[in-house]
Design brief:
The chain is mainly alpha-helical and 117 residues long. The protein has one domain. Helix content is 86%, strand content 0%. The chain has helices at 2-25, 33-36, 39-64, 68-85, 88-116. Keywords: Membrane, Transmembrane, Transmembrane helix. The chain crosses the membrane at residues 43-60, 67-86, 92-109. This is MerC domain-containing protein. Pfam families: MerC.
């Protein structure tokens, strides 16, 4: 369940990073849209994603002893943290790749956990 939640959070991050700028660009008048674009929102989403990863991957490794999901998660987390300090032009791309890496890591972890049970 942790991995499905983690994958969902990472998917929300991708949607937030790619769809929100598009909605703002086309001038869609949605209340609170600028609030979702604030730097605090990025930090909060990143913290949630990183906490879920720290919750899911060590437990997974203890069960299945495979490094692949954890290594992929570290790569995704590193890219996610890099996106927080990156130039604005690259921020969304880094976060989207990070989200994809974290989704893949969570799904691989889940698959390995299910096969180990």
């Amino acid at each position: 369940m942790k991995d499905l939640f983690g994958a969902a959070c990472s998917l929300l991050c991708i949607i937030h990073c790619l769809a929100l700028p598009l909605l703002i660009t086309v001038g869609l008048p949605i209340a609170g849209l600028s609030l979702l674009e604030s730097e605090n929102t990025h930090v909060i989403l990143s913290v949630i994603i990183l906490i879920v990863a720290l919750w899911a991957f060590p437990i997974g490794w203890k069960t299945h002893r495979r490094l692949f999901p954890g290594v992929l998660a570290v790569i995704g987390a590193s890219l996610l943290l890099s996106s927080l300090v990156a130039v604005e032009a690259f921020e969304a791309y880094l976060a989207a790749v990070a989200g994809a890496a974290l989704i893949s890591a969570h799904l691989a972890n889940r698959k390995l956990l299910l096969s180990a049970a």
